[in-house]
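Title: [Solved] BNR/Asp-box repeat protein 3D structure

Original question kept below for reference.
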Amino acid sequence: METILLGQKKIFDNPQYTSYLVEDDSVLSINEGVAFGKKCGETILRITDEASDKSRSISICVKQANTYQVSIPEYDLSKQYQSIIEKSPHTSRQYLGQPDLTQTKTGRLIIAYPIGHGKGPIVMKISDDQGKTWQEKFDIPKSWEDSQETPTIHTLQKSDGQEIIIMISACPGVWGNYTTGWNTSISIDNGDTWSEYKHWHSILPNGEKNFCIVAMASLIQLKDKNGKWIDEWLGVYQDNEFINYKTHLTFDESGEECWSDPEPYLNDYRQLEKEYQICEVGMIRNNQQIIGFCRSQSHRHLSTYIISKDEGNTWSKPKFLPAYLAGERHKPFFDPITGILLVSFREIRYDLNGTGFIEDEEDWKAGNWMLWAGNISDAIKNKNSGFRICLGKDFSPNVNGGDTGYAGAATFKDGKIVLVSYGHWDESFSKNWEGDVRTDLCYIQQVSFKLEELMNDFYSKDY
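Solution (posted by the thread starter after getting help):
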């Protein structure tokens, strides 16, 4: 089958000796051997060589023009905005994995990450000066030593004024101690002390094991029907079959955490959820809507988004995001000064040879740690909009590239933004590493800047 892109032309043979007949001229038109894709669909083109009176038929598929190439401005972040939180070559901490970051009401920043890829003992560091310096905590719970998955960390503000910081680590059940469900650890004193892990929901309501992965990829506070904040948070994760679950976090009268039974929240779109392999949904509230940015682990599809207008009770059909947001572990947040949407993620680049299609399961490559800045409505309307910033170049010794981009973000009232991620940032070391990517030098880096200053810098230069 021949492919023609919508709105583009293709030349067939020599029109001097040939006649053409299109079975469905609403899909394709042809004039003197030049075919034009009119609308998406399939048809048959019959070509006759008048000199020999021989004919042949060609199946034609008209497809949407290339949607896989990034065509918005892209800038590299200057090294002056980058700094290292921990880099430990030739030690037991040579590979440091996926971090998360939270901010307390005092302005304190708390970062947590594993020693190892995804699982391993948790390292926690604290900064009380907006990330200028970091101090490692050594008085941490012993149960953190047996963490089975990348940690997520969240700060919760209750209606009575109490602040709760919660770290969550999933138990996928397919490695380590083979536990399923998830673990939580809580601090109620600004991150000074932490509880030992408490375990939740090893078994689903249907009696099957809860193969939990990246819990909670998002933990978002809910509102009541009058738009008032309530002491309830929606958490999401996925399992190894790419079924996405939600669970609600509340606190009882004695202040103890309570997690509701997990339930799938994309059942209405199970076929798409499975085909795209939707996972690690990064959620953000936009007025009365909750928008989720979804990773497509199939690597045959762009990233998608979903929307809930009823506090996570129901969700819209997954739709594709623009190519400039193709990636993994999206972390969306708003710039505190301009209100611009910022999304941190590990980029995925598709259609490596520029044919306009994802040709097979190898037609993709993971790239660098990226940040998109733009209008949230443009992103969900699939408009070319905004710009991208490469926050860090990753040199993973890996067939499909980038091992980076899981990130945490914090913003300050003066416009300062702090983001942290992990990655193979040392080009020389990684290019000479002869071992596995998961034992290469991988370390924790932060970037710190004000968006307006970056924008002025970008636009003042002749790119």
